[in-house]
Amino acid sequence: MSARLYPAHFEAIASALQAIFLKGNYADKEISRVLKEDKKRGSKDRAFIAEQTYGVVRNYRLLKHLAELENPTSREDFWRLTGAWLLHNGTNLPGWKEFGNLSRERVEERMATVDDKRAVRESIPDWLDALGTDQLGDNWGATLTALNEQAPVVLRTNRLKTTPEELIKALAKESILTEHIAADALLVTERRNLFATKAFKAGHFELQDFSSQQAAPSLDVDPSHTVIDACAGAGGKSLHLAALMQNRGKLLSLDVHNWKLEELKKRAKRAGVNNLETRAISSTKIVKRLTERADRLLLDVPCSGLGVLRRNPDAKWKLNPDFLERVITEQADILARYSRMVKPGGKMVYATCSILPRENDDQVDRFLNEEAGKDWTLARKHTYLPQVEGYDGFFVSVLDRT
Ligand SMILES: C[S@@+](CC[C@H](N)C(=O)[O-])C[C@H]1O[C@@H](n2cnc3c(N)ncnc32)[C@H](O)[C@@H]1O
User: Fold this and answer.
1) pLDDT bracket for residue 205 (50, 70, 90)
2) Domain boundary assignment for the chain
3) Helix or strand or coil: residue 343?
4) What does the pLDDT average to over 83-102?
5) Architecture of domain 7-123 in CATH?
6) What is the per-residue pLDDT for 3?
7) Which residue out of 237, 273, 281, 301 has the highest number of ligand 1 atoms within 8 Å of its CB and is therefore the one to mutate?
């Protein structure tokens, strides 16, 4: 590859990386920040900065090894990591002083030493590599490799306003090429700024991965139902549920964070959704008062996010064993308490964007074997894996209440 390289791009990448690794800031926010600092950049330059920054975040441990840096802190250190990433991908580097003695030969020599060190090669903390091996056995290696790739961009057509066929045509007029892959899902085959399109502003689609689009349809909702989305967040799945309910029936979106529900309200307005009400879970009473009110319940619970590392690669550096234990305890509590909101004869979907059985199958098994789960049976479950279906790692289980 012989891309033209500019010092200003490396400056922007290094600035984003310093904030991500030294201050613990989110990668997507930092990339937006540095891109906003120079609005004159064209789309290729913006894409270069975003892609290289994500590349370094994804491959941080490997790049520290290749660039022979124990603990990068300075601006030059992050230039050097980015340089090592480009060399590793076959790009020649200019002789800028920040790169120091980096050379293709040395990077190749260092690369040859990691064949038997998966955690370094795939850039993952040792504790996570051990956990993945313990949880997924032989599947872990392929999952890890797939999670280090760039995520495909998938849209969900908002059927309240358009159809996949009409949306494909409307987006093509704005030079965005898409392919209908399933139900409401379109795969974007040419990356562009989707949020600037007329179709987005008019609420004709939402960005939502293929795997995540499997949760709402699994609830088998209809326009007569009362549906509760109990961990609704900013409402990706609530909006999907509203469309499947044809904007009828009653949809109640709950979350412990009111600011997320405020964001959901804005998105609902854009999407033309009007069967939805939001309510913050400010005390345990909110859930108690809803005992046996719902025909359908979605529990898209907080999780490790290990299935969506392609999209949020910085999460692997922020996650820690204590957080994982806490979130597992919280998931079990949510399943046991919130399931009481379902009427006899109703249905519930328990979902996570994790690939770990401890957050998925084990939680469902435990629930079914305890007092809270005595009226419940498992109808089906599936773990979507990035190396199998090709999209985010995701778990969906469907449970029926007798
Ligand atoms: C995986 S996210 C939900 C994503 C959302 N369903 C979507 O499709 O966009 C999990 C959500 O659970 C919320 N949450 C955390 N603890 C909770 C609790 N105890 N009860 C309800 N929601 C909770 C978080 O604030 C977060 O928004």
Assistant:
1) very high
2) 7-123, 153-207, 212-401
3) strand
4) 94
5) Orthogonal Bundle (1.10)
6) 61
7) 301
